[in-house]
Amino acid sequence: MLIQFARNTCLAALFLFQPLFSGVAGAAIALDAPIPVGPQVKVGKLPNGLSYYIQKNARPERRLELRLVVKAGSILEDEDQQGLAHFVEHMAFNGTANFKKHELIDYLQSIGVKFGADLNAYTSFDETVYILPIPTDRPENVERAFQVLEDWAHGLAFDDAEIEKERGIVLEELRLGKGAGDRIGKKVWPKIFNGSRYAERLPIGKEEVLRNFKPDTLRRFYRDWYRPDLMAVVAVGDIEPAQAEKLIRAHFGKLKNPRPARPRTYAEIPAREDTEAVIVTDKEAGGNSILIRYPVQAVREPDTVRGYREQLVESLFTGMLGGRLQELAQQAEPPFLRGGSALSKLTPFYKSFNASAAVGPGGAPRAIDALVRENERARRFGFSAAELERAKKDMMRSFERAYAEREKTDSNAYVGEYMRNFLQQEPIPGIAAEYGYATELLPGITLDEMNAYARRTIPANSGKLVIYSGIERADMPPPEGPALLAALAAAEKAELAPRTEKALGTTLMETPPKPGAIVAESEDKALGLTRLTLSNGVKVILKPTDFRNDQVVMSAARFGGQSLYGDADILNARYANAIVASMGLQDYSPLDLSRVLAGKAAAVTMGLSGYSEVVGASSGATDIETMLQMLWLRFQGVRRDEDLFKSFIGKQVEAARNRLAQPGARFGDTLVATLYNNHPRAPRPLRPEEFAQISLDRSIAIYRERFSSAKDLTFVMVGSFDVKTVKPLLATYLGSLPTPDIPTDYRDVGLRPVKGVVKRAVYSGTEPKSTVSLTFTGDATFSEAEQMRLQALVEVLNIRIIEVLREKLSLIYGGSAGASLGRIPYQSYSLSVTLPTGPENVDKVLAATFEEFERLKREGPTAADLAKVKQNWIQNHRKALRENGYWLARLQSALVDGTDPAAILTHEQRVGALTPLEVQDAARRYLNTENYVQVVLYPEKAAQEAAAK
Question: Please, what are the domains in the chain?
Fold first, then answer.
């Protein structure tokens, strides 16, 4: 279903969770009424068993989202096939019946479909999904796209030579995934899955199988499981349903199921009977975590309104319990850094209640005690009427927003629904029905019902799995299993009292401020803008749009920022806005603020960056005044809260400490230190001990110095609003902002990249993994045209990285180039290339990369490669022109950079005029092999081997 308040699989992240819910709707319906398939989608099945889902949808325009969904993943692999479900997915891009070798990628790139960002696929335990977005401006694109899907379904070439080349790429992907998470996972998955086959069929597979399998073993998996009765085609977007159905029948109607067909069964997960503690540590772990997993239970998606109503209850329960745990995390010395309890899915058909937390200095037993006590408190005493009312308001507002956007929802959202319907039988009644169901059913959910649900859902005296996963540190030994189980048992038996909650106000502001006035107004009809000047000097640019029905975004920026403060104050300036935000607003803590704002969609952020100050805000169409009130209050003062400050700093210290355990930390730190020659303003993560230098009072003072005045701010507002209606609100809240005189220009602090060629090697990590980083910097001439040339160079480099280093040489799984052109504090550029690989391949990767640099400088890009870049840009721009966020960013950047905002209207023409010679000249300017920084990460073992020699 469209609205998903909480759906996750344990496999996405071991100790992350979300509420588990998806809504459905109707009017005056019986609870036992079946949930129908909505009228917005045509669902069918061919005689051979292939399912299909078709929906005409107008957003984004001239685009069709296609998926081939296969109910086959790693769980179905035979012993000699472990990793080959995923390998088959790779081979879909290496030759098919109608696209030889890499012709498929070449063709799709030529029509603007970018490999990786657009064209992609994934393999999980129970499914493999192929992702194909297609521009529909030419009819032949659509016809060929369905041919691609058909080829994937039954026409993969499996050329022996291509299999061998892809073997190296898949092994690089395997290498890339190695690390603490992988090592910890291999130890805990068997416990989590409790002896199930899932623990033995991780999608990446086994290295020995990947290195040694015979091509026929790969073909056998494809032959057994890629069959129409296990497939679905999803087509959502710019296509007539009759045309889509005709194409599906033409391309898939002739597919046949094998005879005999292997039965498609689903692995079971046995319920746990005994309580057990598992302790797993690794010196490179990214933090310390606790997971308490209660017994698993089989689950199926609701097929009646009664089942849907139960999921509404479940979502309300999860939200209320999560709010309580969030409150604990805001203590001065919290029992955990963050925590939560929820029902979550292990696999499509199994779920369990679990509690998890990121563990801080208080240790695992204290975290367990806090988690279990709150779960027990909810089980014994339930929730309050105020908690339930807030949860209902928030949920109903989510339904309202989704319903308001029912004609302007992206095709991707619908695609996800229909995939889940095919894979998990999730109902798909459509948002109109969902909204109706929620409107009717939510008010009838009572507090007694919620409290009974809590007693039923949090199992008492049941077998549990307690997993501690943490950093292996000499100064902090891990907890003992018996201590964890003792903490759990004590918390379950502890004497508890019902939770109490202080009374809160119901509004942010009792009385609006005395309004200012609009003193000047003009229109820019070409861009659809209204420009206002307010009586306090604040300026506003308004762009009402019909892109969304319930979205308003706003921003403002000016120069200044951290640059106005000396080195002694840089840490206070850097964290000032985050500290102030962590303490709440006006008289409300962050948690209390969320309670006051229950049922509203509004947010405001303030940022103090290196050379500027930024204000960001967003709201629903009916919550604009709330957003403006929040913004006004941010300029009026600061809520000082010593406990929340201590909590904030403690979490930052722990995160910094955890980061240092990871091999990438030394690599990243060395890169920044080398690039900026250890400058004190270099943009590097802080070390744990450096947070002691941050002062609450000085951070507040800096915030007040910069955000007690709105001088020289120009606000840009884009979205679903009426200019006439918002003008009085803007005069009231923005026109009354204080504007005392403050500095509003930046100061050049002398931060510059190092000159010449500088090379460093970093030895960190136990796995045989390396990363190559190349960074080119220097002076540049800033302009929009030059930005386009630089970005074109980067995109061509990304194409060549994939074609040469991955597909031709099999040296990497993935890599990327990126670049930026800056104007502040001086006109400059930075171009970086990052290439993960094996330590034995570093020299080959460097040689091949620099060979590509020289080829681009010598020959420029091919016309075909540049055409791929330009077509992708044109497609993306057309889509972005219907996005509020895109217009906001372009209008704001025009203000900051002093460029012409009307350039947005001529983007396609300027892209079309870009030539290979311009990109070649850019390569010569920016790929300066006499001025770059090279940093290479090697495993620790490499340093030891070098020393032994």
Answer: 49-252 (3.30.830.10), 276-493 (3.30.830.10), 518-733 (3.30.830.10), 757-948 (3.30.830.10)
